[in-house]
Amino acid sequence: ATDFGIEEALKELGLNEINNGTSTGKDWFSNGDVIASYSPVDGELIGKVKTTTKEDYEKVISTAQKGFKKWRTMPAPQRGEVVRQFNDELRRLKEPLGKLVSYEMGKSYQEGLGEVQEMIDICDFAVGLSRQLHGLTMHSERPGHRMYEQYHPLGVVGIISAFNFPVAVWSWNTALAWVCGDACIWKGSEKTPMTSVACQNIAARVFSENGVPEGISCLITGDYKVGEFMTKDDRVPLISATGSIRMGKIVAQAVAARLGKSLLELGGNNAIIVTPDANIKNTVIGAVFGAVGTCGQRCTSTRRLIVHEDVYDKVKNAIVDAYKQIRIGNPLDENNHVGPLIDKDAVKNYLSALEKVEAEGGKILVEGGVLKGEGYESGCYVKPAIAEAENHFDIVQHETFGPVLYLLKYKGDLQNALGMQNGVKQGLSSAIMTNNLREAERFLSVEGSDCGIANVNIGTSGAEIGGAFGGEKETGGGRESGSDAWKIYMRRQTNTINYTTELPLAQGIKFDL
Ligand code: UN1
């Protein structure tokens, strides 16, 4: 690992052998168990992090609540200025942070850098947004009345994020929530605790230099039980959770039980439809990156390729050929395309998906399997696989978080492909490859894709931060990141002001005393 400058990166990011995983900003403390973070890249120990106890959490939430009271009164553009400075630090530390993401999570170094770039982009977006937290004005039906709406800071926002985007998803939420005037408590994944501590170090330093009250960026660490401190806590008006559908259902119910707000960004089962009018070369690039990038561990990863029978063999051969070019190995080595899965449990799930698809009658086109030998000692490196399958197979209906691509054939009209594309419970990302305007527009129409993201002539993954990110059905319905996703981090208020000497009632009601 030292070959790739990991030691130096850890130092630059202020990480120690044992780190506190509970912080209210300036103050670091944790009294829970110690968890160790092992790299899926080489199986080596990266560091240890102390977890958050219930008592620790009480300190965090009360500091966050107190901090919020001050932070919310600071003008939004001034909050934006703090986020701008935080972003300067991200730009300065892009390489070490990208490296740590790659080493702790296992995605390629290029993708690690890309993830930090998403943080930088959303911060830029948030700085501009800090002057654009606009409400509307309306014309009152009553004479001498003015009506408008405004957005006020919401309170303490709880953020639960997953291992696969260990830093970007936090920033999509925090960068917006901070300019919106909220305090944030983050529980990152217990599989990637070092990246969480690294991010909190950066925020804590910049915030403290700017005299931001303590508690505006807080970190808590541990498994789902630590997450439950927040989901069940009515002092946390919004929970933003990114992860599995299973987790999302538990979080949603806990938050709903207290009538809190939740923003859920859960699993996908993303498909690319390939029509007879598709550019095959671009289809292959989009599909391969979508299926094997991040070792198939993006919520936007391409899981299904729905190909028209007229071009089926051509696409099948081209993609099988392309898979032969994929280099699997240490993700910090930029010659490799694909790194390891996050851990051995993920390897098990991947292997069981391959068994299941065969048991259901699927045909393996590109053999999977676990890689052994030099460089693969962590036991987490697997071969990206392709299977011919049918959409109704139980395994095809489920999201397997790994590099397994299902090839599905459709016949006749595009409607048949759309039926398959929409015929799953998830609704995150979707794409069509076609040069036919009618097909593209039908795919985007009300009768087309039912997903939160629908792309034409690009793949399913790699969304830009400027758009609202999220999906429908079991994906959870939430939208993070760009467009007007910021609104969920604020409370909305409609204001009506009467500047006359009378008191006319709305709807023309007469009430004479
Ligand atoms: C995720 O996998 O949780 O669209 C986020 C993409 C990335 C984000 C993925 N920008 O693939």
TrEMBL record:
Keyword terms of this UniProt record: NAD, Oxidoreductase
Domain of life: Bacteria
Signal peptide span: none
Active site: 265
Keyword hit for Cell membrane: no
Residue span, Aldehyde dehydrogenase domain: 33-494
CDD domains linked to this entry: ALDH_F7_AASADH
Keyword field contains rRNA-binding: no
Enzyme class of the recorded protein, top EC level: oxidoreductase
Listed EC numbers: 1.2.1.3
Family label: Belongs to the aldehyde dehydrogenase family.
Oligomer and partners: Homotetramer.
PANTHER family: ALPHA-AMINOADIPIC SEMIALDEHYDE DEHYDROGENASE
Protein name per Swiss-Prot or TrEMBL: aldehyde dehydrogenase (NAD(+))
Organism, as annotated: [Muricauda] lutisoli
